[in-house]
Amino acid sequence: MRILIVGAGGVGSAAARIAVRRSFFDLLVVADYDPDRPQRLVDELGDPRVLAARIDASSAEGVAAVVREHGITHVLNAVDPRFVMPVFNGCFDAGATYLDMAMSLSVRHPEDPYEKTGVMLGDEQFEAAGRWSEAGRLALVGIGVEPGLSDVFARYAEDELFSSIDELGVRDGADITVEGYEFAPSFSIWTTIEECLNPPVIFERDRGWYTTEPFSEPEVFHFPEGIGPVECVNVEHEEVILMPRWTGARKVTFKYGLGEEFIGVLRTLHKLGLDSTEQVSVKGVSVAPRDVVAAVLPDPATLGDRMKGKTCAGLLVTGRGKDGTRRSVYLYHVVDNEWSMAHYNSQAVVWQTAVNPVIALELLASGTWQGSGVLGPEAFDARPFLDLLAADAPQGYGSPWGMEER
Known about the structure:
- By secondary structure, the chain is an alpha/beta fold.
- 34% of the residues lie in helices and 26% in strands.
- Strands 7, 9, 10, 11, 12, 13, 17, 18 and 20 form a nine-stranded mixed β-sheet that branches.
- It is globular.
- The N and C termini lie far apart (41 Å).
- The relative contact order is 0.16.
C-alpha cells in the first residue's frame, strides 16, 4: 500500500504519527500547499517510508498528478471540506482509493432552510457513486471520529446488540480547557463554523431528512470517565446522512456539547458576517471573512501542551435488544489529552480523529474491508475495526472503547 495524506495540519500530522508505528504500508507521502509543513513532519518522524510533497488540494488535476508521480494506491483527505470534491475527483481520475473524514459541503434550502434540506452533506459524492462502482473503485467517506467511529458503532449495534433500533443518537462532549487563551477551538474553526451554523439535519424513517434551527433541542448528557454532564445541541453532521443508508434505525440525530460561551461566539461571528466564505475587498485585498477568523486564532495543532482534559465521541442507541426487551446503550471512545501528547505528540481531538482512518487503511491493506462505490463506515464489518482500536500495541492501537447500559 502506498498512501498519500493530503494536508499536514493537526489531523494529517497525527495520522502520519500513528501510521509510522504500523507495518501495513510501503510508502507514505504527506503533502501540503506549504511544502515546509510536511517536510518538518518528515524530519520529526525519521522514517524512510515517509516523504514530503507539495500539492494544490483545490485542483483535481494537481491531486491526480501527485498520485501518479508516487504510484499512490490510497489517498487520505485531511484538508478542509471545501476541498473534498477536487481531491475526490482527482483520486478517481488517477485510479486511487479515496478516504475522507468530512464530506462535500451542504447548501441550505433557499426558501425554507430550517425545515427542508437543500443540498445535503455528501450529495455531490453520492451522485458519483455509480461511476465509482462501475470502475470497481472505492471511496470510503466519513471515516474520521465524527463521522467515522460513531458510524462503526452503529454497524456494531445493529449487528450484535439490537434486534431493532429506535434511535441512533450521536452525542459528543469534552471537558477540555486551553490555558492562556480566552477563546481557542481545539479543532479547525473553519470546519466548526460550517457545521455549527448550518441548519442541523435530522432523519426519521417515515419522514426522511429534514432540518431545524442551529443549536436547537438542548439536552444535558452525562459523559463517562469523569467528563460528566454537558449540554448538547443539534449540529449539522454527516452521521445523520450516512447511518440511514446502511442501518434500519427509525431516527438518527447528532448533538454536540459546545457550551454557552462557544455558541455565543459563533452567533456573534454570524451576526457580523464573519462566518462568510464570500470574498470581500479589504484595502484592495480580496479575502473571505471566515479565512480571516481562522488566521487570527491559534492553530489547533499547536495547542496540545496547553490543553487539559478528555474528549468523548459516542453513540446512544435505543431500541430492543437481541432478546426483544427494551435497551439503551452508549458506545463511546474517550481520549485523554495528557495521554495523546505523551505518546504521539498530538492533542486529543486531532489524535482521536486521525486514528480511525489509519485503522481503516490497515483493514483495507489486509483485505478485511473490501468494497467499491461511495461507501460509509456502516457498510463494513465493525468487529475487526473495534478489535484493532482496542488491542494493545503492537497488535492494535491501544485505545479501548467502552459501552454503558443507560
